[in-house]
Design a protein that fits this description.
242 residues; 4-stranded antiparallel sheet; DC1; repeat; C1-like_sf; BnaC04g03640D protein
């Protein structure tokens, strides 16, 4: 029986899409941001095509004037334009292969999930909200270490920071607790809604961390396969010369 839901088009895909309510047990991955997909979504109308998008990814604006890159607007790309078919995110430093925001002039690339990170988050156990920074809070060559994992945070990457306490963390996995308390989101105060915001940020951080690791492993595998092909061609060439 044909679905009564209207079909829509999206420039990232050749086939029409139809609205879909994604369930956790379906274990769907968004074809845009490459993260787990639960809730409002769009799916390809072709049964043999495994293409899904978060509703939020479907609705991403084609251009984003982001504070992290005031020199030029960022353009939404549906796939990386680089020869490697991947990009290194200038926000978190991890690789990506799905949707991104890009400045072609500056070769500046950001995951769509990183672009959406809130300007403040609250970490349980810390008295003040942490503010999103687009580069190291330190100057004069001082090294900025994450106060949770104690690893170095490169100067050019984003982080969350409390100036009052000189306390800072990595953008994703260290910014909030692994399992923060879930508070009621009815206060209407967007900057201090600690339960709802921290929970959402934690979920996003966990998904991003897992996905970046998978992407890194895939890229390493691709590079290894390319090296093997080159070595095989070299051996054949040497044998012909003998």
């Amino acid at each position: 029986m044909a679905s009564s839901k209207p079909a829509v088009r999206h420039p990232s895909h050749n086939h029409p899409l139809r609205s879909h309510k994604a369930q956790a047990e379906e274990e769907i991955i968004c074809s845009g941001c490459d993260l787990d997909l639960i809730g409002a979504a769009f799916k390809c109308t072709k049964s043999e095509c495994d293409y899904f998008l978060h509703k939020s990814c479907f609705e991403l604006p084609r251009e984003n004037c982001h504070k992290s890159h005031p020199e030029h607007p960022l353009t939404l790309l549906y796939s990386p334009t680089y020869e490697s078919s991947s990009f290194a995110c200038d926000a978190c430093g991890e690789y990506g292969s799905g949707f991104s925001y890009n400045c072609s002039i500056c070769k500046y690339d950001v995951h769509v999930g990183c672009v959406s990170m809130p300007e403040t988050v609250e970490r349980e156990g810390h008295a003040h909200p942490l503010t999103l920074l687009y580069r190291s809070p330190y100057q004069n060559g001082l090294i900025f270490n994450c106060d949770e994992c104690h690893d170095n945070v490169p100067d050019n990457l984003w982080s969350y920071y409390c100036k009052k306490c000189d306390y800072g963390t990595h953008l994703h996995s260290c910014a909030v607790e692994e399992e923060p308390k879930r508070g009621g989101g009815g206060s209407g105060n967007t900057s201090r809604n600690s339960g709802g915001r921290s929970s959402a940020a934690s979920d996003l951080s966990a998904m991003l961390k897992a996905q970046r690791e998978m992407e890194r492993m895939q890229i390493e595998l691709d590079m290894a396969m390319q090296s093997a092909k080159i070595a095989k061609k070299s051996r054949k060439h040497m044998l012909k010369m003998i």
